[in-house]
């Protein structure tokens, strides 16, 4: 009877640890996915702006004005792209 109780306790503890690691990995994957989405979004914005700038749809000043108005993120360092 004692062995049965100890065995069940070991199984419960092992299952809890396995589930905890699974949750931990899941949170890590969510964080990584958010970082990848942010990077992909920034790259898409950069590609779109550069395409419009090179195609003479937008001027350098218009792009900088959009950034000042808050329509574009100020951390994107657009001035470096359009030199």
What does this structure look like?
The chain contains 3 helices and no strands. By secondary structure, it is mainly α.
Helices and strands in order:
Blueprint: H1 2-54, H2 60-69, H3 78-81
Which terms summarize this structure?
83 residues, mainly alpha, 3 helices, 0% strand
Brief description of this entry?
By secondary structure, the protein is an all-alpha fold. The chain contains three helices and no strands.
Number of helices, where a helix is a run of at least 4 consecutive DSSP H or I residues? 3
Q: What general form does the structure show? A: rod-shaped
N-C termini distance: 78 Å
Poorly predicted residue ranges = none
Strand % is under 5%
Task: Give the helices and strands as they follow along the chain.
Answer: HHH
Largest sheet: none
Mean pLDDT over all positions: 78
Task: Please report the total strand number as a whole number.
Answer: 0
Secondary structure: helix percent: over 70%
Task: Briefly note the structural class of the backbone.
Answer: mainly alpha
